[in-house]
Amino acid sequence: MASETNNPSREDQSPSPPPQPPIAQTPGPRVTRLQEIYAQALARTLRANSYANFAACFPTPAKHVPASLENVWRQLNAKLEESAKAEFEEILVERDAIAQLNELDRLVGEARARREAEATAGGGDTDMDGGEKIPPHTLPPDELFRAHLTPQLEKTKAVLDGKIQITETENLELAQRVQAQRAEIERLLAGLETVVADVEGAAAAATEYGCENNLRKDAMQMDEEVKAVSEQ
C-alpha cells in the first residue's frame, strides 16, 4: 500500500510528447520532379551519343562491320543508362533524399495552409506601417529568396543608376564640345574662303597691271623711234 501511495501510477505521470509522424518513403512531388529532370538529362546525354557520332570515332569498323559496331553502340548506351540510373538511386538512398524532400513538401504544405488560414481569418500582427506581419518561416522559398535578394539588387541598381547618370552628363558635355568645335571649324572655313577670294582678286589685279605695263613700254618705245626718225 505504501509503495502504491508513494509511487504515482503511470496514468498520473505527464505523457511524453507524441512522436513525429513517419516520413513517407514514397516519392512526393519534389522527388518525382527530380527524377523526371534526371531522366530528361540522361536521355539528352544518350541522344548526344548517337550512332553517327560513335561511328565517326571508329571509321574502319563502321565501314567493314557496321552491324557489329552498331550492336556494340547499343550495348554501350544500354550499359551507360543502366549504370547512371543505378548510381542515381544509390545517391538518393545515401543522402536520404526521398525522406528529406518529402519532409520539405510537408513543411511547405503546412506553411501554405497556415498562411491561407491566417489570411482567411484576417488575423495576424501588424507592423509599423499597418501591414500584416507574416512570420518568415511561413513564407515559401521563392518569397524568402526575393526578400533576401531585393536589398542587394536595389543597392546595385542605385549604383548603376548613378553611373548611368554620370555617363549621360559626360555624353552631354562631349556633345556640346563637339558642336562648339564644329562651329569653330565652320567659322574658320568661312574666313578661309574670304582669304582665298582676296588672293584670287590680288592675282587678277596683278595680271591686269602686268598687261597695262607692257602696253606702256611698247608706247614709250614707239615714241623713241618716232623721235629718232624726225631728228634724222
UniProtKB/TrEMBL annotation:
UniProt key word Transmembrane helix: no
Coiled coil: 164-232
Chief localisation class: nucleus
GO biological process: cell division; chromosome segregation
Keywords: Cell cycle, Cell division, Centromere, Chromosome, Coiled coil, Kinetochore, Mitosis, Nucleus
Chain spans, region Disordered: 1-29
Pro residues biased stretches: 15-24
Protein name: Putative MIND kinetochore complex component Nnf1
